Amino acid sequence: MSEPDVRLVRMSDAEVEAWLPIAMAHYEEARREAGDTPEQAAAGRRASEERFFPDGRIVDGQLLHAIRIGDEDAGWLWVGPWDDSGSVWWVWDLMVHPGYRRRGVARRAMLAAEEIAREHGAVTLMLNVFADNEAAVALYDALGFRAASLHMAKPL
């Protein structure tokens, strides 16, 4: 199977405004599924919004893209620097909509993320992935990512 022609298109302010509650709800739910209490998950969401979207718009330097296949919306990719040094970049969020999964879209988006980070002077690209997302873990491993930190939990 050939990989689709994936394009990244920077989101407009209006698109970011529409995207933000959807993406943050997804993030908060993923944190709960990973073991956060509802309060912890909500606090994590608020911290992310305050740091990166203080007025509902993405802060300068962070890059939020729609993933497109032709004219179709296949998901989103958010990358940006950790701090002002710019040497360490993060994939803050990658979402491929269900109908586009298992078609190479995430792989293509991740390769684009690497190129974007490199073009901006990054020497390291980091990401977090929830351990139960086995498909994502396998993809990142295949792309050369290695564990830099590991959080473990045991329900009591």
Automatic annotation (TrEMBL):
One of its GO terms (molecular function) is acyltransferase activity, transferring groups other than amino-acyl groups. CDD domains: NAT_SF (cd04301). Gene3D superfamilies: 3.40.630.30. Keywords: Acyltransferase, Transferase. The keyword Acyltransferase applies. SUPFAM superfamilies: Acyl-CoA N-acyltransferases (Nat). The keyword NADP does not apply. Residues 14-156 form the N-acetyltransferase domain. PANTHER family: ACETYLTRANSFERASE (PTHR43420), N-ACETYLTRANSFERASE DOMAIN-CONTAINING PROTEIN (PTHR43420:SF47). This is Acetyltransferase (GNAT) family protein.
